[in-house]
Amino acid sequence: MSTTSSNGLLLTSMSGRHDDMEAGSARTDHSDHEELEHDPDDPFDLDNTKNASAASLRRWRQAALVLNASRRFRYTLDLNKEEHYENRRRMIRAHAQVIRAALLFKLAGEQQIGAFGSSSSTTPATSTGNFDIDLEKLVSMTRNQNMSNLQQLGGVKGVAEKLKSNLEQGIEEDEKEVTDRKNAFGSNTYPKKKGKSFYMFLWEAWQDLTLIILIIAAVTSLALGIKTEGLKEGWLDGGSIAFAVLLVIMVTAVSDYRQSLQFQNLNDEKRNIQLEVMRGGRTVKISIYDVVVGDVIPLRIGDQVPADGVLISGHSLAIDESSMTGESKIVNKDQKSPFLMSGCKVADGVGSMLVTGVGINTEWGLLMASISEDTGEETPLQVRLNGLATFIGIVGLTVALVVLVALLVRYFTGTSQDSNGATQFIKGTTSISDIVDDCVKIFTIAVTIVVVAVPEGLPLAVTLTLAYSMRKMMADKALVRRLSACETMGSATTICSDKTGTLTLNQMTVVETYAGGSKMDVADNPSGLHPKLVALISEGVAQNTTGNIFHPKDGGEVEISGSPTEKAILSWAYKLGMKFDTIRSESAIIHAFPFNSEKKRGGVAVLRGDSEVFIHWKGAAEIVLACCTQFMDSNGTLQPIDDQKEFFRLAIDAMAKNSLRCVAIACRTQELNKVPKEQEDLDKWDLPEDELTLLAIVGIKDPCRPGVREAVRICTSAGVKVRMVTGDNLQTAKAIALECGILSSDTEAVEPTIIEGKVFRTEVAKESSDIIILDDNFASVVKVVRWGRSVYANIQKFIQFQLTVNVAALIINVVAAMSSGDVPLKAVQLLWVNLIMDTLGALALATEPPTDHLMHRTPVGRREPLITNIMWRNLLVQSLYQVAVLLVLNFAGLSVLGLKQDSDHAHAVEVKNTMIFNAFVMCQIFNEFNARKPDEMNVFSGVTKNPLFIAIVGVTFVLQILIVTFLGEFAHTVPLSWQLWLASIVIGLVSWPLAVVGKLIPVPKTPMSIYFKKPFRKYKASRSA
């Protein structure tokens, strides 16, 4: 899997196996590696969820053990919604006019009653104002792609005149102008459907099967209790369980609702694309929401078409319309097919468009308005955690069943006793209501064990940590568009980075120039050049560019826009005396070959007057030089280049070794009768690129970014290889790579370290990317890698913490149930433990910030076990300690705690059970610190950087005091003396030195999962043989 960024970063995970991260090193044995290959029989073994088939996604959902499907699958891809989205798209394509009319009617009604809600940013058209074209006619023409209507209006030029827009300069850069257009033609927004209310999250939290069973059991217990013991005493058992369940539902709903709001904010950030438009003759950056009808928008490879429109001009422009048509076909756009649809992507070429429809007046806007929130997505880690949760859940269900059977057998055989030591069931004596009441209590305990054992919150913890990471990554100048990309960063083994603007400062300037056959003393001083040569250079630069030069009306400093290379060359030519606007008005481009990263050059055919055609080329110096047969000297005379070619080659090499990007400018004349006359033939015409005249070679300097060398060093030490992808001269690439630390010496500058050939199409990275580095700084990539690794590490911390609680709680209840017919941890207490472990534990551990320690390890492999050997060691050490302490307290607690002398045996038993509950919770509170650092001795390092962790631990401790001290009958506890409180804290405190001792125990390199899987694989192999 890979993820790219707008600056040309390509981050790839090539790991079949790598050392583990937060949980220590993995094995290196090759035979073990084979054991971790893809298992086709495992529904949870998905390499890539981004392009996974619907069948494989359904398969793992069906295999998962789920108690609350609406909550568990909330942040996974909604397959039904995906189907609905596709059906809706087809319907809109067929019935756009009717749907738009209905939506406009609805919006008008909402505005009238003043209840526009979240859609208030959507401005429907109110009138056509001072414009000479009707909105409906404009929308109809674009939607139906009606060429005859366009021609009746005078083509794109006629439409622009009616919209009072200039095809070259765009609309006026004036706030009133923009407002008038929004009022006349609508805004480029659509009414968003309101997100789920808090009550919906409450309802979803309520859907948990075990909680429903517990409520039913609580109601039954409540009714029986009131009937047998009266209201005053009888409500306690049933009422306490019901209240505890309602508390769990409330806390779960609050946590999920807050998480939903976070995702809503992140989605708003993702949709707010920034783009360039022409306004008042200058290129300005605006939000996609601020695009209005009449805007002139330049289009380049990778751009999203922000609104409906008509092509003004384009060269080799190809559009991917699959998002609207559903057909994976690239459509070429020209004057015969000039209509552009909002939401599509530019696949190739360049061009400019006139906006004719925005917002709900486009099919894309109608589609966005008709669907609700994102259909979601699942990540590979989420799928794996669902598999782990299913496995743990099956074990938990088995344990609960064993406990249920054991308790029922002991009850009906008369071997179980109540807190007073009396036999609970005596055949023929115990009343039916008492039997039902006791059975309900036994059943309640078994169901509560299922609640604790099935880690319903485990897969959701991924979403929690991803949401937290995405928010923090935004502050680190990284916009995450897909959740799975965060995980990918944790497994990335290679980062392929574009050079310009990422490794370098993106501040390009021409520092060396060869023109007129020699090196110029000053790179941008035209004094030594013939006017004819300067004129040809100026024409070549002005016409063969996607950039622009804007002269402010107030006479201020000129504004130069375009790509960094274009800006540098435009600035250089401007200083030579180039009159940009004059040149472009005196000659016209009749055909263009946009710059291509494969050919590394771009060209235009320019018609001067009615008779003279010049073809201008610009591109990689060594490639353009190879096409030249002559050059123009300082006197404006053409000279054969054969004798001078070696001089120019050496000049290019010298500049390249100084880390300069070398660009050559050349031209040739073309006889007019050899230029195709028909537009169709002209579109297919290949610009001549032989017998060129060399005009100039420029060396462009772009200094390395400060901090890049250190960032590359950190990546290398973290096991992540950094590769530079550039279309530059090989010598330039070597020089920059050495400067940035990607190459340590010239001896490394050989294959396969350096590969020449077709380069990555980094232009399309911007819109196809999963993570966008907003500041184009390679140092930000290191932060993103840290966050990616942090996601995986935090999940492992949570797994270790949760499994420790699971193992200890299950063992203590099973052993106690089998031996004494009673369980020390009651239903309400287990629900509180579940709250600590599931919701609060996830919040505390899933939001741990990344540390430098994460970058001292190699990437984690895709199929590395989630529970590593180091985690198994930590988990077993802590859970065995907890089980040992709790069993001692359970069976010898009366003696150990000095309660045998208590005359009230029932009270002594209650104190003992309260002590077990209190000690168990203290162990979890202190073990939460151990879970923060599974493989570090100092578990407190950086704890102050996570105030949420401290707050949750503090709140848990305070609530435990309140539960034990004040909620006695409700929680089946009694107040403890300060000595017992101290003993409880000491029992929990022992887990800290125990963790240190445990970390001294060596672990094998081969993952434990290998030993678990081998018998199953051998069995499968024997069955299939």
From TrEMBL:
Enzyme class: translocase
Pfam families in the record: CaATP_NAI (PF12515), Cation_ATPase (PF13246), Cation_ATPase_C (PF00689), Cation_ATPase_N (PF00690), E1-E2_ATPase (PF00122)
Keywords annotated in UniProt: ATP-binding, Calcium, Calcium transport, Calmodulin-binding, Ion transport, Magnesium, Membrane, Metal-binding, Nucleotide-binding, Transmembrane, Transmembrane helix, Transport
Biased composition (Basic and acidic residues): 16-36
Annotated localization: Membrane
Positions of the Cation-transporting P-type ATPase N-terminal domain: 149-226
Biased segments, Low complexity type: 1-15
Catalytic activity as recorded in UniProt: Ca(2+)(in) + ATP + H2O = Ca(2+)(out) + ADP + phosphate + H(+)
Principal location listed in the UniProt entry: membrane
UniProt cross-references to InterPro entries, sorted A to Z: ATPase_P-typ_cation-transptr_C, ATPase_P-typ_cation-transptr_N, ATPase_P-typ_cyto_dom_N, ATPase_P-typ_P_site, ATPase_P-typ_TM_dom_sf, ATPase_P-typ_transduc_dom_A_sf, ATPase_P-type_domA, Ca_ATPase_N_dom
Region annotated Disordered, chain positions: 1-49
TM annotation in the entry: 201-226, 238-257, 388-412, 442-468, 798-818, 830-847, 880-899, 948-968, 980-1001
Family: Belongs to the cation transport ATPase (P-type) (TC 3.A.3) family. Type IIB subfamily.
Function recorded in the entry: Catalyzes the hydrolysis of ATP coupled with the transport of calcium.
Protein's recorded name: Calcium-transporting ATPase
Organism name: Brassica napus
